[in-house]
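Notebook entry, structure prediction.
Reason for the run: the old model in the group folder had no record of what sequence produced it. Starting over properly, with the input documented here first.
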Amino acid sequence: SNQLNEQAKELARLETRLEMLAERRQKELALPAGFPSVARLAEGLTIPAEYRTAIEAALGQRLTTLLLNNDADLWSLLRQADPASPLSLLVAGDLAAPDAPAAPAGPILGRASELIEFSDRIAPAGRYLLDGVFLVADATAAYEVGVGLPAGALAVTPDGLIVEGGGLVRREPRSTADSPLAREEAWRAAQQEVAAAQSELAGRQKLVDAHQSELGALQEQVDAFQPQERAANQREQEANQQVSQAQRALDRQRQQVAYLEKQRQEKAAEAARLQKRLNDTETQLAELQAKLAERTEALAHARQELATIPAAEMAQEQRNWQQQVDAAQTIVAGRQAVVDSRRAALNQLNNQLERLESRQRELQQQRRDIDLQQATAREEQLQQELTELLATLEPLREARAASQKAMQAAEEAVIQQQRQTHNLETVYTRAQVAMSQHENMVEGLRERIKADVGLVSLSSSDDQAEQSPLPLQGIVEQLPIVDELPEDIESNIQDYRGQMQRMGAINPDAPA
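New structure, fully documented this time:
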């Protein structure tokens, strides 16, 4: 994941910084190019915390001792080393430790060489330097033991009080964060942090790889079920389409049946209206026929009467009755035509009604032919298969979700470790920058003192690696210790500097 890649990059940067620190440690040795590798005494010591102050006080600057293989390396290094740099050397190639002084009878905690651990490379040198150092509980015991020790042996308390053989009591300054032992412990702590970060990153990587493998296996199982799922979905879709088509066909048949039923009812109503009108027309026709019969009877009676009336009047009366008869016949013929038309329309409606009833019967037969039960059963079967597939896929999905959750937790832990590593690196970098600034400031002050005063023997603490000039009378000045500087010291220095510039060059060897 991206978080693991970022943590790997941070770890790479941390390892690069550790390599830079290793190069800096190598530069602090100030060894000439091509010189054989050497070991430092502090590198091979493993000191319990309760004895650290005592051992550091007993060894002091000897903690920076370089262990050489032979005398040739010793003289070669002395010739090539910077005279201004502090140097502590010991040929440990064939070193034979002298007989250790016997343990005194006083109250001692133990011999220093027996209370700490040495690496194989520095063990002879460590015993050589620490066999004569005895750790005691307090100042009283230190003095009691130290008085009876031979020259070169020491009795040291846990707080750093030293009593040399014969009774010389001295106290070394407390160690600081820049002491050789402190720097060595800081270096070991940095190595352990890098190793821990590497181990944790490797563990996280293995865990993530395992989760990814599990996730890949689960994904393969899911992928294997996907064709079946797709086939089931396809079958379900086909069944749904068939059911939908059957449902639409059924709906269309129902609509057609309803439409035909409505048309049949309308045609039946129209036929009833036409039948009523036909009955009315037939009734009117019967009435007209009755009237025609009456008129015919009246005509016959009129003819009989006509025979009794004069010819002219009879002709006129005959024409009148003939006109009435013609008009009645015309009306009867018109009504008969209407009756015939109504009969034809009624017959046509009856034919349409018969066709509609036949179509309705056909639609009902088609409706019975649609096998809805079979489609419903097929749909239920497909639904059951789909349910079984979903039940099979559900555990796989849950396992995949659990794996994703575990991987997310691992990534969050990696991010937290990365943030902690970055914070440690920031703190260490700030400390390095601050130390460099202080070293530059001290070096600048030394250069100014050298430019203004000349060679001066300055007091310094034991944890500072520097080489003081030899106390040559007349060349190296020994300045007094000043607790508080005068207020006009800067102005006086400026005045003296101006006077020296005005005097010009001076030959110190010229006769007075």
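Summary: The chain is about 70% helix and 5% strand.
The old model has been moved to the deprecated folder.
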